[in-house]
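Lecture notes, structural biology module. Today: joint structure prediction for complexes of three components.
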Amino acid sequence: MKYLEEFSDPQLARRLLDQIHATVTRPWALMEVCGGQTHSIIRHGIDQLLPEGIEMIHGPGCPVCVTPLEIIDKALEIAAREDVIFCSFGDMLRVPGSKHDLFRIKSEGSDIRLVYSPLDALKIAKENPQRQVVFFGIGFETTAPANAMTVYQAERLGIENFSLLVSHVLVPPAIAAIMESPSCRVQGFLAAGHVCSVMGTREYPALAERFEVPIVVTGFEPLDILEGIRQAVVQLESGRHEVQNAYRRAVPEDGNPVAKEMLRDVFEVTDRAWRGIGSIPRSGWRLSERYRRFDAERRFAVADIHTDESSVCRSGEVLQGLIKPNECAAFGKQCTPRNPLGATMVSSEGACAAYYQYRRLDLLPAGASR
Amino acid sequence: MCLAVPGKVVHLRDEDDTRMAEVDFGGVRKDVCLQYIPDVELGDYVIVHVGFAIQRLDESSARETLASFENLGYLEEEFGDQLALARRQAGMDEESTAGKGELP
Amino acid sequence: MTEDTLPTSTASGPAIDADSWVCPLPLRDSPNIVMGHGAGGALSAELVTHLFQPGYGAAGTTELGDAAVIAAQPGRLSFSTDSYVVKPTFFPGGNIGDLAVNGTVNDVSMCGGRPMFLSTSFILEEGTPLEDLARVARSMGWAAERAGVRLVTGDTKVVDSGNGDGIYVNTAGIGVIPDGVDIRPDRAQPGDAVLLSGCLGLHGIAVMSSREGIDFGTTVESDTAALNDLVDVMIGTGADIHVLRDPTRGGLAAAVNEIARSSEVGIEIEESRLPVPEAVSNACGLLGLDPMFVANEGKLMAIVAEQEADRVLEAMRGHEAGQDAVYIGRCVAEHPGAMVARTGIGATRVVDLPIGEQLPRIC
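The predicted structure, tokenised, for the full assembly:
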């Protein structure tokens, strides 16, 4: 068992697809919350193989996409300082702020380093005691334990020249915000498997109950995605709305208790702005009082930077499945994958970017239509 | 949210009082922090995100899930679509095939 | 420096181990490059006679004029240049030196040219260890010998410490195109078969595995290799080869997209047919990369008429550089200019030209 190729077997995929086709009697709109799932759906073309009426709405679960412009601008400001080594995951380097991206700052001479893990940034801090080393701590509950551990270790080992620019976001409040939108079309959710690997599944029954939507914890390989869709559709067809776990091999009900304990110590819940959606109450984490001195926003006094999102961009409505990407006036004109205005055009898996690719060729598959 | 991949723990060590491991991802090896799954043993599979093991993979669950896929549609082939439809309407289909991996 | 101190390397194989090879004579006192090595004086001359000439060996030249003098060839020439800034300089399976020779040899070959002469031009950062440069020069000599090309002219400049990054190399190459050969990026036609000479992603993953910040342990080695002999064999079948392209930066996806645009055809690739070694596939999984976008330095993609595909494929498989050659897809009249991949579970997706460098992602 290698836990990978076993879950992309074409024959079993066909079988799951046949089941989905046999189950569906009317149209349903499902949202996969996680950007990794969106990536998998597009990478394998899963949306094209679904029955005509099954619509996959790509959710806001890409941390790169939802990190607000304001935080990017703060990152740019900090990264441009001469005393700073700014460390980031690769995918954040290309995300545009209001003027430019981290690549541009790097080209102008700033010391910006791509790291695989936040622990690498801590190592750089240890090796460069005379410089300030900042890690761009973005991500959902999956990434938060890694960033928390880094801050915890910085404190424990006395690495005071390290700090974290925090923009952590949380899934359950985002699901609630989407469902509370008056024109919301989402009828079922594929919950993000790796978020649940950390957090477990106990946050979700209340949401399923309150909004009367099935929530299926789903993995990332083709068979995982298809099984998540199948379970959601079976529930919808039979009028149920429960939390189910289609990713049991990696998601125990309690998640990871050790990681959750660390998160409680290092972070505290705060309101967060989501790019394209706006502020969602209690939808993110910031460093707790005990670790506040490792907060880069505080250390570099960038709290006063305020940036508004593009006024023409309607990515918030796209994220919620309210409009199709090409119904936005900027789509394909001011806003393209090379010059993205909003979250959904930033990442190659974003709804707008994906739509742009297919529209360009008039190859839009049935399942991807919104 | 995240790109996390399964790998096998091939070497354990402590570094600065932190539990670390070398994890093999099928011909690719990487240092991984095990602090969040302290009781991992050599040979265990863990799921790794940005250098951290966030969960241990459960082999029996994985096998059950795969077996449930194998069994999907089996009843339809044998007994025809009528039965499947009846079962579906009765809401029975789902529970039995999804998580537990055994035929009802 | 006399003739007998030249390393004895012959076409039958290198006689010296690059890793332990050191410059035969110490260059004055400094073990490192100093500004004077690029100033055209005695130090520059010493670098040529004591480091580059022995490094290049039989592939090099003893003529040190301002230009190489080459007998004019009848017919058409193919002429290409490329600069190499790969980081790190030494990576599993190769270094900037063999990469710079093989890369330009391959570029010349992709137009059907038989590469003959290369220029080599260095931009060195002050402080670069001479031993590193010697290893690079030696690798270039061997690579040139293997490819059957001569390194006939060159130049060296040195930049201040901090203004460069160790060793940069530019090579330019000239080849002669045999009569009747017409290989161009705009000759792909609907119905043509798309062939690939071997497995994908080795070079990109090997380099990434040794890059600071991403580094991981792997046995994957760069596939850097000259392809001119393979191309010769393919042309030798008599088949009308429409297009050749080496999928280097941007990988197969960039190569296919470029051909689709130049030829105004659609190109469909079947993902399940792509040969991707397990370690490459897993490294891509770990970093969130797509093997179709990862660089190769010893592979080529060929587009030939469907009815000639089997013959060409067989010839490729008979050659060392093409033994794992496979059919990977075809050209179609639909969606001109675009690459479409058929996925493992039977759907299709559009594969666009990558916007920039492939970056590891977390999402």
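Point to remember: The longest helix of chain C spans residues 130-147.
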